[in-house]
Amino acid sequence: MHYFSEEISGNSNGNPSIYQDGIFSYSGNTFSIQLVTEVRIIEWNDILLISAYKIDQFTVDSIIIDIHFAETCISINDQTEGYLKFMDVAAERLVNFKRDWFSVVAFPPIETNLTTIYEKPITRNEIGSH
Questions:
Q1: How many other C-beta atoms are found inside a 10 Å radius of the C-beta of residue 69?
Q2: Can you give the residue range of the structural domain that contains 12?
Q3: What is the pTM assigned to this prediction?
C-alpha cells in the first residue's frame, strides 16, 4: 500500500488563531482543510486514526498531530491555524476520542509522548471482508 503525507498551508506567523477555523471549515459530516495545492474535503468517517506526539525543539516543544486516512496522512501542529478548534470538533464527531490528549502529549516535557487520540472501530462488515 502506498501511503502519502499531505502538506498543509496556513501555518501562523506569530499570531496563531488556534480557536478559530483557520485552515479548516466544517459542514455536516465533512470538514475541509486548506493544503498547499488544494482544498481537501474529508468525511469524518474516513478518519482511521489520529495520533499526536511532541518534538523537543530546545527552547519550546512542538506538538504534531497526524490524521490518518486509508492512503494518506495529514500532519498539523500546534502552530497550525485552527488546530485546537479542529480537535474540539473532532472530539464531538468521533466516538472514543481521547479528550485529555493535550495533557497526555504535553507532559512530561522533553518526552515524545506518542499517543493515539482516536482509532476508528472495526465493524463486523470490515472483519468479514478481509
A1: 17
A2: 4-128
A3: 0.82
